[in-house]
Amino acid sequence: MNKHRRRGDAGFTLVELLMVMAVFIIMAGVAMPQLGRALDLYRLGIAVRAVERELQTARVNSVQANRPVRVLFNCPTVGQFRRVELIGEPGLPDGRDNAVTRCNDRTFPYPAPDLDPLTRPNLDGPVRYLPVGVSMAGIGGIEFLPNGTARSASAGSFTFANIGTTGVLATVTKEANSRSVLVNGMGRVFVTGRQ
Length: 195
What we know:
Layout: H1 14-65, E1 69-73, E2 80-85, E3 128-129, E4 134-137, E5 141-144, E6 150-153, E7 161-162, E8 168-174, E9 177-183, E10 189-192
């Protein structure tokens, strides 16, 4: 073997390095839009799962505690939602259950100051936030009753009515992509619009 190399045989030339960099830049330019779309879908998936988890938790809390529990959307502002226990009884409503301040975690803190069933609310959750750029539409809230069934309120309303057989959709959107959480009258929660 020849142990002596010529100076021109070692390393890369400037032209070769520039060509490799050019190919890398072109590949990165092609991949960037796909990466942005993947990030949007990831954020959308996170938001949908957060909404679904909060609805499932509200249903379980309602049945276990034998109390109506609601999940209010865009509460207190757009892009936020919160699980709240009804203060009043279904036949004897409390005026504070219809106020927007019900979403205020200063007025109704999380965690509750005590777990005494005589002083409510005890089952309120924290205010949850959707990722930046993700919005929610479709309904104003879902109320789970102690028997596991559900009722819904339209956006901007605190009037809850029975859900029909087809259910109601809470639609979560990021850019041009959207997915929905379906809740039927029996209180079952499903994620729809999988990508």
